[in-house]
Each structure stands twice: as structure tokens, then as C-alpha cells.
What does this fold into?
Amino acid sequence: MDKSYLAYMNIVSAQYIVSSPSVEKCPPADKPEYAFIGRSNVGKSSLINMLCLQQNLAKTSATPGKTQMINHFLIQSEPDEKKTTKSNARSSWYITDLPGYGYAKVAQGQRAQWKKMIEKYLRERTSLVVVFVLIDSRHKPQELDLAFIRRLGEWKVPFALVFTKSDKETQRLVSTHVKQFLSVLQEEWESLPPHFITSAVKQKGRKEMLAFIEQCNLYIK
It folds into this structure.
């Protein structure tokens, strides 16, 4: 990442737009779009709320499988007035909250429908810039996460890794799990994707993720 862009973005507003049952029902693909996905109960809604500094923007739940449709949030952002970037214009972009993969107390048929919906969105959504794949930093590499990342590679979908809940374990253990995960990826990939270590509670990783999104938005322009 170009460090000159670090923490230059301010989110001016963030609002829920719509929940769509299919990619065809999503809003027009006329803005850069950043999708968030991970295993159920990985802390996806809490991360989105932390990035936008809105406690109840994305609905959190202790019940896995709460997100069942493609949820769009419209974000308005602008560069920090104290900094200088390539563009001082306000940016409009989407955060997309996708259903989690893995464990959920729903029927097998429903899970199959979600899987089909997610795949179609990831492969056909023309405005999709990056998929943020959330990984629970408390655990060693999980095959479910690795399998999903392999599919993204097969579909040629750009992605970044977000290691969540880093405040729930010691920093040493979190660092060990992150290194283990990246080490496994290195066995299969020529280069590693961008990755971020986050805590929704401590707002860790927020500036770095927003800087990355801003850099992507400037590149698109």
C-alpha cells in the first residue's frame, strides 16, 4: 500500500439502502463496491459498523446466519482536509454485506440458495472492486476459509483478507495465526493479497482499511 494515502479518508455519511435477494435486484452498478464476507459469526456486521462509526448501521446478532440477502450501504467519503491527495472530491461507494458461509441453522436447501446467490453476485457484479474475506484471528487456518479463497481465485475475483477479533486473544497468538494463514496461502499463490488485522472494539485496522479503499477509489478514477 502507498503509505502517502494512509488515513486520509473521512466518512461523511453511511446509510442502509436495500436488501436484495439476487444480483439482478441490486442497485445500479454505478459506484465502486466493496463486499464483506466470512464464516457466520466472524464479526462482519461489527466490522462494518466500526468502519463507518455507526453502532447500528449493520444489524449484529449472536445467531449465525442472520444476514440472508445482499445488503447495500451507500457511503460518502472525502479526503482529510489536513492532507493532500490526487483528488479532493467527495467519493460515493458501496459497502455490500453478504451472507456468511459455513455454519447456520437453516435448511440445506436454503444454504444452497445462498451459495448460488453469492457466487452469482461475486462473478457478475461489474462494479465490485474488492471482496474483503473476514478471518477469525482467534483460530488456526480453517479449511472452510481456504476453500472459499480458492474459489475466488478460480473466479478471478480480487480480494483482501481481514483478520477480525484481534482483541479477543493475545497479540502473540493473533500474530501466530495470521502468519500461519499467510504461510498456507503462500504454498498455493504466487503473491499474497493485502491483509488487515482488526478489532471492532478497539477500532484497530480502521484507518488502514479506509486508506486501502480510498486508494482503490482513486485508481478507478
Notes: Residues 1-7 have pLDDT under 50 and may be disordered. Helices lie at 44-52, 108-124, 143-155, 171-186, 206-220.
